UniProtKB/TrEMBL annotation:
Membrane-crossing segments per the record: 80-99, 111-132, 138-158
Enzyme class at the top of the EC tree: transferase
HAMAP family: PlsY (MF_01043)
EC number: 2.3.1.275
UniProt subunit comment: Probably interacts with PlsX.
Membrane topology: Multi-pass membrane protein
Organism this protein belongs to: Allochromatium palmeri
Signal peptide positions on this chain: none
GO-annotated cellular components: plasma membrane
Protein name: Glycerol-3-phosphate acyltransferase
Pathways involved: Lipid metabolism; phospholipid metabolism
Keyword Ribosomal protein: no
Amino acid sequence: MITATLLIIAAYLLGSVSSAIIVCRLMGLPDPRTQGSNNPGATNVMRIGGKKPAAITLLGDSLKGLIPMLVGQALDASPAVLAGIGLAAFVGHLYPVFFGFKGGKGVATALGVQFGLYWPIGLCVAAVWLFVAKVLKISSLSGLISMALAPVFVWLFWDEKALIGMQLIITGLLIWRHRSNIRNLLDGTEDRISAKTSSD
């Protein structure tokens, strides 16, 4: 019980480390919370600084979900504990204790959790994201569709109630965090993915 509690706390604290804010500070870029969409995530970092800082941010956010899950797997954590670890890392990204509980929207961190849980799950979610992004060129819609399907992939590959429940909560929170994007999608004003960046 103590080990499980420490793993969950550590997952939340790691999730609370904002890759976007740190990368922007280190690379001399504006605070992503005050520029573009005001979201500390990879897509907004790309708007502000281009592909390189966005890629670093994406990697950092993904690792926040991946590393705690892999540690849990290495310690033979039960599905219930793995669910707690994954949810804690994701919530840490959304509501980071180190940054006034104002974090990102969670797609990359959720994807890291899914790869850490079982790589085919992560691969399926990533494939859906890439396909939708390629066809529709809207990052938020790619995230919403891929994460909406994520509980199905968890059910197909690892039919465990705690893990399916974890993913349902993650998906629900992610949709909630994207509510402004959903309004923009309905209005036809949502930003599209652009190849043009300030670093190109």
